[in-house]
């Protein structure tokens, strides 16, 4: 396992776990971890494996995706309520996951946009750029940044 | 949906096993220790993305990063 030096501010990372109960019981983990940008935290989401490590890649297909995503939204809401100044960044570990996040943001946009400012990261040739997230735009977002509206 | 903060991950596991209550989210806050806590691939990927110079310029212009 590798380690990397980070700038660290007084925020602590948060870990939330919950159990997805569908075809089987799966322990889900949501981690908020500081990035190299002081006011941006990464949201990592995955399944806890028996050895305690987290699998961020596998799609578990447990038949309860909407409930799982609604729970993640609740967790983001809870986490940012005490850290309103923080931007949360997330991108899928695969293109399919990023598409899933995009679809989820579109579905929940009417509710989500009342709580959060939402930005998308897009590819511009070889570069990356940021634009406000638009639920009706046919854009292949690369990642997402959200911040609680004060 | 109810949030219950637990003292450690073992307590979370025990609570999940005993209560099996999917409307409750048991959580613990774990300190992230730079240089000690392993950095997940997700975070490495995020850092790679966020350190893109063009994106940084854009994020600064919009007041997202300082």
What is the residue-averaged pLDDT of chain A?
82
Shape of chain B: elongated
| Total helical elements of chain A | 2
Please give the alpha-carbon distance between the first and last residues of chain B.
35 Å
Q: Compute the number of helices of chain B.
A: 3
Backbone CA Rg of chain B: 18 Å
Mean pLDDT of chain B: 76
String of helices and strands of chain A = EEEEHEHEEE
Low-confidence stretches of chain A: 1-12
The backbone outline of chain A, from C-alpha atoms, is globular
Structural class of chain B: alpha+beta
- How many domain modules of chain B? 1
User: How do the SSEs of chain B run, as a string of H and E?
Assistant: EHEHH
Alpha-carbon distance between the termini of chain A? 38 Å
| Largest sheet report of chain A | 8 strands, mixed
Beta-strand fraction estimate of chain A: 35-45%
- Major β-sheet strand ordering of chain B: 1-2
Number of strands of chain B: 2
Helix content of chain B: 40-55%
Fraction of helical residues of chain A: 25-40%
Alpha-beta classification of chain A = alpha+beta
Question: Could you please describe the fold and organization of this structure?
Answer:
The complex is a heterodimer of chains A (150) and B (66). Chain A has one domain. The N and C termini of chain A lie far apart (38 Å). The longest helix of chain A has 21 residues. Chain A is an alpha+beta fold and 150 residues long. Chain B has one domain. In chain B, strand 1, helix 1 and strand 2 form a beta-alpha-beta unit. Chain B is α+β, with helices and mostly antiparallel strands and 66 residues long. In chain B, 45% of the residues lie in helices and 14% in strands. Strand 1 of chain A pairs antiparallel with strand 2 of chain B.
């Amino acid at each position: 396992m590798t380690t990397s030096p980070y700038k660290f501010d007084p925020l602590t990372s948060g870990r939330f776990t919950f159990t997805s109960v569908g075809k089987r019981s799966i322990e889900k983990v949501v981690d908020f971890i500081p990035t190299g940008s002081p006011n941006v935290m990464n949201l990592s989401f995955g399944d806890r494996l028996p050895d305690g490590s987290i699998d961020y890649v596998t799609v578990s297909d447990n038949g309860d995706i909407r409930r799982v995503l609604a729970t993640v939204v609740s967790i983001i809401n809870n986490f940012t309520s005490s850290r309103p100044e923080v931007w949360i960044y997330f991108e899928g570990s695969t293109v399919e996951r990023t598409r899933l996040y995009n679809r989820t943001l579109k579905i929940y946009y009417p509710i989500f946009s009342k709580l959060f400012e939402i930005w998308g990261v897009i590819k511009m040739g070889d570069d990356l750029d940021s634009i406000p997230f638009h639920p009706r735009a046919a854009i292949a977002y690369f990642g997402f940044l959200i911040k609680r509206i004060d | 949906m109810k949030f219950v903060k637990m003292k450690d991950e073992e307590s979370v596991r025990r609570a999940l096993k005993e209560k099996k209550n999917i409307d409750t989210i048991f959580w613990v806050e774990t300190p992230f220790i730079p240089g000690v806590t392993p950095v997940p691939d997700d975070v490495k990927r995020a850092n790679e993305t966020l350190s893109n110079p063009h994106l940084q310029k854009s994020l600064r212009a919009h007041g997202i990063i300082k």
